[in-house]
Write a structure and sequence with these properties.
Blueprint (H helix, E strand, L loop, with lengths): L4 H12 L5 H14 L3 H7 L3 H7 L4 H13 L5 H12 L5 H13 L4 H20 L3 H7 L2 H12 L5 H20 L15 E3 L6 E3 L6 E4 L9 E3 L6 E4 L5 E2 L2 E3 L3 E4 L4 E5 H4 L3 E4 L8 E6 L5 E3 L4 E2 L9 E6 L7 E3 L5 E4 L6 E3 L6 E3 L6 E3 L6 E3 L6 E3 L6 E3 L6 E3 L5 H4 L6 E2 L3 E3 L8 E3 L8 E3 L6 E3 L6 E3 L6 E3 L6 E3 L6 E3 L5 H4 L6 E2 L3 E3 L8 E3 L8 E3 L6 E3 L6 E3 L6 E3 L6 E3 L6 E4 L7 E4 L6 E5 L12 E6 L16 E7 L5 E6 L9 E9 L10 E4 L1
Helix pairs in contact: 1-5, 1-8, 3-7, 5-6, 5-7, 8-11, 9-11, 10-11
Length: about 700
Amino acid sequence: MNDYTADIQKLYIAYFGRPADPNGLAFWEAQAARDGNVAAVAKAFTTSPEYQALYAGRTNAQIVDAIYVNLLARHAEPAGLQYWVGRLDSNALEVSSLVIAIMSAAQNSETIADRLAMSNKVAAALQFTASVDTAAEINAYSTNAGAAIAKTWLAGVTDSASSLAAATASQDSTISRVVASTLPPEEVPPAPRPITFTLTTGADTFTGDSENDRFVVAAGTLNAGDALNGGGGYDVLSVTASGQTLAGTLTSIEEIRLVDGGTFSAAASALGKMAFGHMDTKDTADVTLIIDVASSATFDLSGVTAGQEGAAGSRIRAVYTNVATSALNVTLSGLGDTFTGSANADIIHGGAGDDVITGGDGNDTIEGGTGADNLNGGDGDDVFVGFDGQDFVNGGTGTNTLRLTATSADLNTANDAQLVLVQQVDASTAAVGVTVNLSSQSEGISVFGSAQADVLQGGAGNDQLSGGAGDDTFVGFEGADTIDGGTGTNTLRLTATSASLNASVNGALVNLQRVDASTAAAGVTVNLSAHSPGFTVTGSAHDDFLSGSAGNDVLMGGDGNDLLVGGPGADTLIGGDGADTYAYDANTEGGDIIENFGAGDKVALRGGQFSGINQADHIKAISGANAYNGGFGYSFDGGAYALIYTDTATGKTSLIIDDNGNDTSGGYTVLVSEFKTAIVGPVPGDIQIVP
């Protein structure tokens, strides 16, 4: 086998409708390896005796259609047939180029059926060729009779998984028939053949052989006394009458195939692990399978799955009867089930289909499984496990919880109608950090993160977000939200001004250390003045207004011309690049540190307590070694002053307000305890009195 094996098999299938013979495959693999492609191989096939025998005298339309049937298991559609015939008639393409083009088009087709048909045929052909591995088999397959048997076998492979499974199951018997076709009549062993059994109204006992057998059920013919054994192969029970009950004892039957549009019933105990499929008809109506669970409080039908699909748009749906009235612990089938629980605390696991599950009155636990499920809690405090696909969850009355053990990308993109009357999203048991994004939800929801680093985002309602352990990130702040970061270093991330955050009350932000707006596309306003804990606030690269809490804050403006108000605590203010303003008013107790004071930066003194400071001559820069003790060595005229004071003993520069010009009486306030690592200044002109 080399890089060209699959493409050479496609050529054998397209031209001749059969798998490659081992010797031919090896020869053409070497040819393709030398050429670096299969173009010469495709051209050589058109000169072979087998090609001439098959296509001599055929029109271009017949040749194109035969290639479609061989390779894609269907006739050419009118538009495609017209196109390819036109290319051949005009000599724009040779047949060899046409075959390669159709192979490539099927491989990249948006029509999944073509891709699956070609892929299934190639898979079957590869296995068949590999299994022809004795001298007797190789010699027999080189004959016309042997090739014809293989061609018939491969023609049964289509786009369905069941057709490939059937071909795989019958491969060995097919090779046996190939060998038998070359033996003298007296040496030919009796070959097993597929058997069709037609059930009667009596008690039937039928046993198939190693082939793909078929059991045909008409109205009233499948009864409790029937015993059907498929034997080897891929065996099908074909039910051709609506209203039939699937009874009897079924052994080694791989698929139950039902007529589209019908209604059927079965006892759960009789189903086992069955695959169901549609009859291949033009009817697009759904099949309904009524499953009698015989009042069992516990049952598992997870192995009952949908097999081969029939007409486009049709599907099998399962509904349940005789459901127990006691508390249930059930696992539904994979058909797409409709199930209603009891009035007790049920545990209901959906399957792979699109389920409709209603919990009933108790405190139920419902898991939809994969598929687009419609889950209804009913009364009681219900728990919904996971959120997969296009689910719709309606909690009903009570306090209802959606439990996550990992991030659900489907939940994070769900619209508002997909999550209704669910009060809690609980990821506390997740083993790794989760991302929960409820930005499309309008109801207020309590969200509980894991013990790891989570990313939690509420919606338009009044959400309660709890991070738990780990360094958590909360995204945005809408409505009257509350955030409890839990342990760790936790961050509120803003991409724009949040009016709701600025209006929030003390206690709305608990165990939250950081507010980060560094990724905002425009300047932001962050006002935490109503809050008591200290925060580290990071502004954007634009013009921001940052107002701290009553605690000891760190405010970082970033780029842009920022306005920073520290508040009552001993704050650290870092304007960053740009012409920044550090504002003080009646709510400011002082003792702040301003870092990297630079050109264009200002200190604004706002409000009545600073009104006695004359801008012209009551703002002075002085120095000394007094360290705020025993006076500053400056003669005052009795008025209020703002002093930029450099302590020569420590080298620190401070901003000091003297309310009465008598510093020796202790009548001063240290607004800025240090201009730390100042780039330029400050100088008296950098201090502004703002009414």
